[in-house]
Specification:
The structure holds three protein chains of three kinds.
Chain A (H helix, E strand, L loop, with lengths): L9 H23 L7 H15 L3 E3 L4 E3 L4 H8 L1 H19 L7 H24 L6 H27 L6 H33 L15 H22 L11 H10 L9 H13 L15 H34 L17
Helix pairs in contact in A: 1-4, 1-5, 2-4, 3-4, 3-5, 4-5, 5-6, 5-8, 6-7, 8-11
Chain B lengths: L3 E11 L5 E11 L3 E5 L6 H8 L7 E6 L2 E2 L5 H5 L2 E4 L12 H11 L4 H14 L15 H14 L4 E5 L7 H13 L3 E5 L3 H7 L2 E6 L2 E7 H5 L2 H6 L11
Parallel strand pairs in B: 3-8, 3-9, 6-7, 7-8
Antiparallel strand pairs in B: 1-2, 1-4, 4-5, 9-10
Chain C lengths: L2 H16 L4 H4 L2 H16 L14 H10 L3 H11 L1 H7 L2 H4 L3 E4 L2 E4 H38 L4 H32 L7 H28 L16 H19 L2 H23 L1
Helix pairs in contact in C: 1-8, 1-9, 3-8, 3-11, 4-8, 5-8, 8-9
The chains are: A mainly alpha, B alpha/beta, C mainly alpha.
């Protein structure tokens, strides 16, 4: 799923770089103030383990292709989501630099696709709520793994199409990416579940190093379940229901039509004309559909375009909400002393 | 009476999931002395070194480093005086090149750049590792790794060396080089080892551990020539003393 | 050669290239990083159908490798091995996009132009990436990170993962060889072994991780503190990067093949005309 530089435009690459850097900075702050104090060396070495584990390819039955463990979920379970994200970022950087598995420009995209979704969506919203009951923990791992990979694969499609480096139709691209990553997600989930199961039996102290799941925090559980439901609802609404969205003018357009005889006002001044021209140039999805839908067979391209914009809109809204939330939390943080940092010169 | 560098009083320790590892351990090391910790596998030698280095907290008892009681608040400060060489040098060599590993300690103590380089150069020179400076640690042989791990703690300017099996897995020549090097160092040394012949060569005193307690302590030759005592502790006479 | 030894060999080869003595190797690591990044960014900013315009971009990695005394053959080979991934995305275009497009008088399906452009961009970006890492090595990368004020926590994570990959690959190799010798067959994990084999390695890894953490703390490690001094930029560094950026931007704005082509045509056209006059 690693994206190469050739598939990314500078704009998309830069945007995801910024998102990744911001997430990384947040994680570093969180780790430095973390009361659990998971050791850096442990994170580094487990990161190396995940890197080595990624080299073991497993063939996926019936597809003729192979996959390997991604590791984001495993790292989140063992290290917590923040340190897990940082460890995955470091792994992906080594892969990009030394193996060209992913590139420099597309590094932000790869971190987002492979680390963000597993550490901050699959792990807290799917794995943690389900894994509270031990007998469900294996299923939780598999579901979380599949979800993380599906979101990541979908992101790859979005980022590639937004970059305009390929003329592959959205439908074809999705059909190429999602099913194969579903299979990979299942295999990864099963493997991760088995490894975590073994570790839980033989060395349970490893699992306890993660964020402690608040057993009595019912409010947190309910919040997480509601969030998960909202995400699913947004995706379903954006993706499927939008197909059946009415093409009749909305309230504003209807009003304008009644008054002027047209659904849009014509621009009178040069300023309006200038901004209209700019908007036409930068609007990726004018009127919630693809620009080039006239060149392909009309209705199916239009439908896919609507689905695409629906899902994109939902995801972007969610990302914006998350970023706003993170921004608020970061600015309202009180600095706690780092354990051990003031001990150096404190002699009894 | 010589000033005590390390003093351990009635120390006891138990692991979270295990039995009692150390029980009522008391001894002291004077400045500049070389003392060996010997005993069978699992008797608590490494655990004792780790307790003195402040990596674990004792169940009961006290540890004094240069007459300062080791506690949670001053661990980091007192650790500056100690240099612990791990049983497995791969646990200790974690940077990309030997030079970086040797410079790691001085850098974290925020010394000036010139001082860092001077210390690193001198430590590598003493341990005969200068030619390995740009090599990645994983490309070194076992003997070379041991030398480099010694260099890392010498560069940190530790006054007290805690050495865990320093001659383990070394060929005879590398072993001899290590022993000669350790003999030349003026530091206070506490050495956990199975190499009883090295102990006879290098150490003034021996502490014999048996199932987590001190079975005997005293001059090396006296303890290590006592066959029945060693046998009771799961050991044998050193090769050089065997018939 | 097993996968683990192949990957180990790759790390070592980059480090050997990074130890070569050349003027390029003496530049500030951040400058090399910026040069590679700017090259990749501008290269990927070309339109999807750009083919001829990409030609001048071959000059950069070839000349840089020459000045850095790094052999191109192994880098080419490594780059070609990674290209199939881009091929997977690119190969559908000639079949899906049959709109005709023109380059000068050359007429082809648009899909072919996109495919060729993708492959060329892929090749050049990967080659530049490998070249950069061959010049910097892990030491140069670390210096570049320090000069860019990357937080020590991430810096240490990166260093530790790099360092312990080798150890773990060796551990993995030994474990799989032991499996092979004791089972009498190639390592192919059964369902019962999926948990215990990787799980066992993971637990050993965890315990080693704790020991390494202790070793770091004993030598004063504190992730909140900045790590070491930063190398300053010199005049040659600035001259190099200004020259590099100017050329990379120039070739992005002006298509060198077209400029050279039109100069040649103008020259030959004049010559042909003279020939006709005198012929």
């Amino acid at each position: 799923m690693h994206m190469a530089d050739a598939l990314i435009s500078p704009q998309v690459g830069a945007a995801l770089w910024i998102a990744t850097a911001a997430t990384g900075a947040y994680c570093i702050k969180k780790v430095q103030h973390d009361e659990c104090e998971t050791p850096t060396a442990l994170a580094g070495i487990l990161g190396a383990f995940v890197f080595a584990a990624q080299m073991i390819n497993f063939s996926i039955p019936g597809t003729g292709s192979s996959g390997h463990i991604g590791g984001g979920l495993l790292l989140s379970i063992l290290l917590g989501p923040h340190l897990g994200f940082l460890a995955m970022s470091a792994i992906l950087l080594i892969q990009a630099l030394f193996f060209a598995d992913g590139g420099l420009l597309s590094y932000g995209c790869n971190v987002f696709n492979l680390a963000f979704y597993t550490c901050f969506i699959a792990y807290p919203l799917i794995y943690k709520p389900l894994a509270k009951k031990e007998k469900r923990s294996k299923a939780a791992i598999v579901l979380a793994s599949v979800a993380g990979l599906q979101l990541g694969a979908f992101s790859v499609v979005l980022e590639t199409l937004l970059s305009g480096k390929t003329e592959l139709p959205f439908g074809t691209f999705i059909l190429l990416m999602q099913p194969i990553h579903l299979a990979i997600g299942l295999v990864e989930g099963l493997l991760t579940a088995v490894i975590v199961g073994y570790v839980q039996k033989t060395a349970p102290q490893l699992i306890r190093h993660t964020e402690r799941i608040p057993e009595n925090d019912k409010a947190a559980t309910v919040r997480q379940k509601i969030m998960a439901l909202f995400i699913l609802a947004a995706l379903i609404t954006g993706g499927l229901i939008s197909w059946f969205a009415s093409e009749n003018p909305d309230g504003l357009e209807w009003s304008i039509a009644k008054v002027t005889g047209s659904t849009e006002l014509s621009s009178a001044s040069s300023t309006h004309a200038l901004f209209s021209a700019i908007q036409e140039k930068i609007a990726i999805l004018p009127d919630y559909s693809f620009k080039a839908s006239e060149t392909s067979s009309g209705q199916s391209a239009s439908r896919f375009g609507t689905t695409f914009s629906g899902i994109t809109g939902a995801l972007l809204t969610f990302v914006l909400l998350l970023l706003t939330n993170l921004g608020i939390k970061t600015f309202s943080w009180r600095k706690k002393p780092v354990p051990g940092s003031t001990q150096r010169d404190n002699l009894d | 009476m010589a000033e005590s560098c390390i003093r351990v009083d009635s120390l006891s320790f138990r692991y979270e999931n295990g039995g009692q590892v150390l029980s009522n351990i008391s001894f002291s090391l004077s400045r500049g002395s070389a003392v060996a910790l010997v005993g069978a596998n699992g008797c608590g030698k490494t655990t004792l070194l780790w307790l003195i280095a402040g990596l674990f907290e004792a169940e009961s008892g006290s540890i004094y480093i240069e007459e300062i009681l080791l506690n949670r608040r001053n661990t980091r400060t007192l650790q500056k005086k100690l240099g612990l060489a791990f049983q497995n040098p791969d646990d200790q060599l974690f940077m990309a090149t030997v030079q970086q590993d040797v410079e790691f300690g001085p850098r974290n103590f925020l010394l000036p750049e010139q001082e860092i380089q001077h210390r690193a150069r001198e430590a590598m020179h003493r341990t005969n590792c200068l030619h390995l400076a740009d090599r990645p640690p994983y490309r070194l042989s076992g003997g070379e790794k041991r030398m480099v791990s010694l260099a890392t703690i010498l560069a940190s300017d530790a006054e007290i060396l805690l050495l865990d099996e320093p001659t383990n897995a070394l060929d005879p020549r590398a072993r001899r080089t290590t022993i000669n090097l350790l003999r030349s160092l003026p530091h206070t040394k506490l050495i956990a080892t199975h190499d009883l012949d090295m102990v006879l060569d290098l150490c003034d005193e021996v502490i014999l551990l048996n199932h987590g307690t001190i079975a005997a302590k005293g001059p090396s030759r006296e303890i290590l020539s006592n066959g029945p005592l060693l046998e009771a502790a799961g050991l044998e006479l050193p090769l050089s003393l065997q018939g | 050669m097993t996968t683990s030894t192949k990957q180990g060999y790759r790390f070592r080869r980059f480090e050997e290239f990074a130890c070569i003595s050349s003027r390029i190797h003496q530049f500030h690591p951040a400058v090399i990083l910026l040069a590679a990044f700017s090259y990749i960014t501008l290269l990927t900013s070309f339109p999807a159908t750009a083919v001829i315009e990409l030609a001048p971009y071959f000059l950069f990695p070839i000349l840089l490798a020459q000045f850095a005394r790094i052999p191109l053959k192994p880098l080419f080979a490594s780059t070609l091995k990674v290209l199939p991934m881009i091929l997977l995305i690119g190969f559908l275009h000639p079949f899906l996009d049959k709109e005709l497009a023109y380059h000068g008088s050359m007429e082809l399906n648009r899909g072919w132009f996109i495919f060729i452009s993708l492959m060329l961009k892929g090749f050049l970006t990967i080659l530049m990436n490998f070249l950069m890492i061959s010049i910097l090595g892990i030491g140069g990368l670390q210096k570049a990170m320090k000069s860019m004020k990357i937080p020590p926590l991430f810096f240490m994570l990166f260093t530790l993962i790099y360092r312990y990959i080798m150890l773990l690959l060796e551990d993995l190799y030994r474990t799989l060889r032991a499996y092979e010798l004791r089972s009498g067959r190639k390592p192919r994990l059964t369902r019962n072994e999926w948990g215990s084999l990787p799980g066992g390695i993971l637990i050993r890894t965890y315990e080693q991780g704790l020991r390494v953490q202790h070793a770091m703390e004993l030598r004063g490690f504190n992730p909140a503190h900045p790590y070491g001094s930063v190398q300053k930029l010199s005049i040659p560094d600035i001259v190099f990067i200004m020259l590099w950026l100017s050329l990379v931007v120039l070739f992005r704005i002006y298509s060198l093949p077209e400029v050279l082509g039109s100069v040649l045509v103008a020259f030959c056209g004049e010559g042909a005309g003279l020939g006709v006059l005198h012929g």
